[in-house]
Amino acid sequence: MPTFNDLDLKKWKELDDIETDSLWLFDKRDNSGKHSGFYHGNFIPQVPRQLIKRYTKKGDFVLDPFLGSGTTAFECETLQRGCIGIELNPELVDYVKGKASSSKNIHCLCGDSTDPKVFQKISKLLPKKQVGLVILHPPYFDIVKFSNKKTDLSNQKTYQDFFRLLCKVIDNSLTLLPPKRYLAIVIGDKYTKGEWMPLGFYSILAAQGRKLKLKSIIVKNMEGNRGKRAQHTIWRYRALASDYYIFKHEYILIFQKEK
């Protein structure tokens, strides 16, 4: 029986809100509560909701090294979990802090997730608590530029540089994650000069070299993409004219930390 969540398996037939398939289909993003789709890099709340319910208990802390506009933090707040979020952009940190100001267990740090010193601060912040889950939703390489900072993953010139920094974030995160607990990477692929770049597969290789056991590859559909809303026809034409396929999926890669 799982010891890392609150799911009552005696009532497993009633757990119809928990996804158990490797294909997740959502017709639209959930913008209820404190969620908003204003930020280009945010992911739909249904993703962290599923991960938090499946891999944590009430009172556990979730680590999000790419906090963004706070999707994970707001889900943690709703599900009675704590959250430690790290974000380069101080304006986004202030935004999330303002919305979660009444929550004692939502902590937002303005900092660089590639820097081990940031994680040392977190370890002091939670001397009696442990991180139960890590959720990483990094930039999809250079598709969207999020800042001008050198260590921003979206500013890297090559995918080798991108993954070098992503590996640093993974290594730093693992210093706070106990053995047998879970780490998830949410990422999509991209085209570069007409060639498909499989960022998801590269992420698997990066994580598996760090004593992480791959538990699942989940494929999630992409609906309501901000850059393609109400433009399906023109994107279809571009795909036919330029010999490519329109991205309609992302990956949710689930890993378990080994002893």
How would you summarize what this structure contains?
The protein is α/β, with parallel strands linked by helices and 259 residues long.
What summary fits the major beta sheet?
Answer: 8 strands, mixed
Strand order of the largest sheet: 1-9-10-6-5-2-3-4
List the secondary-structure elements in sequence, H or E: EHEHEHEHEHEEEHEHE
The total number of structural domains is 1
- Termini separation: 19 Å
Count of alpha/pi helices: 7
> What is the CA-based Rg, rounded?
18 Å
Kindly estimate the percentage of residues that lie in beta strands according to DSSP: 15-25%
Helix proportion = 25-40%
Mean pLDDT across residues:
90
The CATH architecture: 3-Layer(aba) Sandwich
CATH class placement: Alpha Beta
Written overview of the protein:
With 259 residues, the chain is of the alpha/beta class. It has a single domain (37-257), classed as Vaccinia Virus protein VP39 (Rossmann fold). The chain is 29% helix and 21% strand. The strands form 2 sheets. Strands 1-9-10-6-5-2-3-4 form an 8-stranded mixed sheet, sandwiched between helices. A two-stranded antiparallel sheet has the order 7-8. Helix 5 (159-174) links the parallel strand 5 and strand 6. It starts with 22 loop residues before the first strand and ends with a strand.
List the helices and strands and how they pair.
Blueprint: E1 23-24, H1 46-55, E2 61-64, H2 71-78, E3 82-87, H3 90-99, E4 106-110, H4 116-125, E5 131-136, H5 159-174, E6 182-187, E7 190-192, E8 195-197, H6 199-208, E9 212-221, H7 232-242, E10 249-257
Parallel strand pairs: 1-9, 2-3, 2-5, 3-4, 5-6
Antiparallel strand pairs: 6-10, 7-8, 9-10
Helix pairs in contact: 5-6
